Amino acid sequence: MKIDYLVNFRLSALPEEKVDLLVLGSGVAGLSAALAAAARCRVAVICKGDPEEGNTADAQGGIAAALPADDSWRDHRDDTLAAGDGLCDRAAVEVLAREGAGAVQKLIGLGAEFDRRGGRIVFTREAAHRRARVVHARGDATGIEVEKSLLRAVADNSRIRLLPGTMTVDLLRRGDCCLGALVAERDGSLRALRAGAVVLATGGLGQIYRETTNSGVATGDGPAMAWRAGAALADLEFVQFHPTTLYLAGAPRFLISEAVRGEGGVIRDAAGRRFMPDYHKDAELAPRDIVSRALVDRIRRTNSSCAYLDVRSLTSRGFQRRFPKINALLRQYGLDAGRDLVPIRPAAHYAMGGVKTDLWGRTGLKGLFACGEAACTGVHGANRLASNSLLEGLVFGARAGRRAAAERRLSSRPALVSRRRLSPPGRFDIEDLCRSLRSLVWMKAGIERSGDRLKEARERIRFWQNYALRFETADRRGWEVQNMLILAGLICRSALARTESRGGHYRLDHPHRDDRRWLRQIVVKKTR
Ligand code: FAD
Ligand code: SIN
Questions:
Q1: Ligand 2 atom closest to Cα of 349?
Q2: Which of 124, 198, 356, 393 could potentially form a cystine with 29 if both were Cys, beta carbons 3.0 to 4.6 Å apart?
Q3: How far apart are CA 151 and CA 32, in angstroms?
């Protein structure tokens, strides 16, 4: 369906404010961009909820970087390339690995405190890393430490203004130039923020899936609005499913960090049997897609609803101290880590794809930059290496901010009008549609895909789009679900096109990697 804007508006009739640089999103990527840009210009950072709301604050395991004395950026690069299963952009990976250690040091300089023993930083090993190189904070509370440190630095910087509760509905553009953003306040009223450049850092899209570890804000707004504006999106078929999320009726799909397996946690089936060694030589520390598929297979074979994480042997070795957040949550749901097996299932966790960028965050639209989970720098290829995402936000967020500040140009006020034929919502239950969509995407475009399943999902989504995108909604939830609908359709389209299995994308009808045909990215872009 052709769609440029989600709402009708006449720019000349809207309240307007001019800003040097506009950053959309207050996670690790957006705040890193803002701090880097503030050296050159004034910055406004907007986020649709509270500043801390997002995947960054929920991050557990840590940040990977070649900091240990026995490590090197080349080894980190090679592990990242191996995890990406042939599809990483090598130049982007080199930037990440080379600049990673410096970016973490800078964060420490801003006051972030990582766990230490005898004064020295402690490193953990996670899946597919050849050595322990993951720094963490208060055990499993790395994300909140990162977020708070960056927010403190932003609060101390008089050139940065933070505007919470401000939802970006669409990017304003003329031709292939981005001129700013159309935003809505908490009461739904619209206004225009015209900017010399926009950095899109709106995070992930996990909420498109029924089962997800992601924060409620992760509805893929950024890539969906960038697509409407004419930017290219890439690698959308590559979604990472995390194998170990708590599976209890009524409980959130709370992540049980991979670091738990890194410290010796094992996975068992309903009969109590440890099965990962049958599936991969690295057993529980095999790549996430392999562990997730093994879980699905084992759950099916044992005719059960979940598998189990066994951390009982870790409690005598300080599980409660190493993972206080996870331990507290288990207790909240009546589970004792020293006695009980923890019911787990995989869930959608991370989007490798997003708005396609170059090494400086530039997108296909002039004046629009992207970074963090909403972007596709090519650094993750078909599968992200654990704990590389916070690092990507730090490194590429700063790069995008720096470059956006240097290249910004405020254009004269354009005469923009959006006149879509929108029908009033009538009796339209947005939450009902949202539930159906998330269920469909989980069942048909989840861990195990096939041509038939994807076609069915694509057709059903097209049908829903035909009426749901015509409704004019005037609130955050309505726009979010419309964004989810657009992105779900693009995920199915990309997954259908890729007739092979690679990284996070697994096709039952094409179970092997096919380098002859598919050693390339799938890029989607709206036809004008
Ligand atoms: P986010 O931190 O999600 O921030 C997105 C921002 O965009 C928010 O401020 C939100 O309000 C704003 N936003 C969204 N849409 C709009 C809109 N329309 N208008 C205005 N604002 C908007 N990675 C690691 O490297 N290590 C880990 O240990 C780790 N653990 C994780 C644990 C969990 C449970 C999850 C879910 C992810 C984890 N990840 C981890 C992944 C990592 O946390 C994320 O990929 C990363 O934090 C994303 O950062 P971001 O800045 O791109 O987005
Ligand atoms: C985890 O702690 O398992 C999540 C780490 C990540 O997603 O990189």
A1: 7
A2: 393
A3: 10
The architecture in CATH of the region 423-516 reads Up-down Bundle (1.20)
What residue spans in the chain does CATH classification 3.50.50.60 cover?
9-237+352-407
Q: Could you tell me the pTM of the whole model?
A: 0.97
Ligand 1 centroid, distance to 42 Cα (angstroms)? 24
Q: Which of 77, 210, 268, 288 is catalytic?
A: 288
| DSSP SS3 for 299 | helix
Residues of the chain with CATH 3.90.700.10: 243-348
Whole-number pLDDT of residue 425: 60
DSSP, residue by residue, 336-396:
-TTTPPEEEEEEEEEES-EEE--TT-B-SSBTEEE-GGGEE-SSSTTSPPTT-HHHHHHHH
Cα torsion 516, 526, 230, 439: sign: negative
Residue 201 CB–ligand 1 contact under 6 Å: yes
Q: What is the mean pLDDT of residues 315-340?
A: 93
Pairing of strands 375-376, 354-356: parallel
pLDDT greater than 70 at residue 418: yes
Q: Is the CB of 258 under 6 A from ligand 2?
A: yes
What is the Å distance from ligand 2's center to 117 Cα? 22
Mark whether 339 is an active-site residue: no
- Ligand number nearest to the C-alpha of 58: 1
How confident is residue 171, by pLDDT bands cut at 50, 70 and 90?
very high
Tell which CATH architecture fits domain 243-348: Alpha-Beta Complex (3.90)
CATH architecture, range 9-237+352-407? 3-Layer(bba) Sandwich (3.50)
383 CB near ligand 2 (under 6 Å): no
For a pocket test of ligand 1, which of 145, 202, 258 has the largest count of ligand atoms closer than 8 A to its C-beta? 202
Question: Which own/partner contact pairs does 75-79 have at CB distance under 8 Å and 24+ positions apart?
Answer: 75/130, 75/131, 76/100, 76/133, 78/130, 79/128, 79/129, 79/130, 79/385
Length of the chain: 528
pLDDT band at 424 (very low <50, low <70, confident <90, very high): low
Which residues make up the CATH 1.20.58.100 domain(s) of the chain? 423-516
The pLDDT tens digits of the residues spanning 187-216 come to 889 999 999 999 999 999 999 999 999 999
Alpha-carbon distances of 245 from 64, 136, 298, rounded to whole Å:
21, 19, 16
* pLDDT for res 278: 97
Which token pair is 97? 């690995």
Give me ligand 2 centre to Cα 349, in Å. 9
Encoded tokens for 451: 């041509």
Choose which residue among 55, 384, 482 to substitute to test ligand 1 binding: the one with the highest number of ligand atoms within 8 A of its C-beta.
55
Q: Is 357 in the pocket of ligand 2 (CB under 6 A)?
A: no
Which of 255, 292, 384 gets mutated to test ligand 2 (max ligand atoms within 8 A of its CB)? Answer: 255
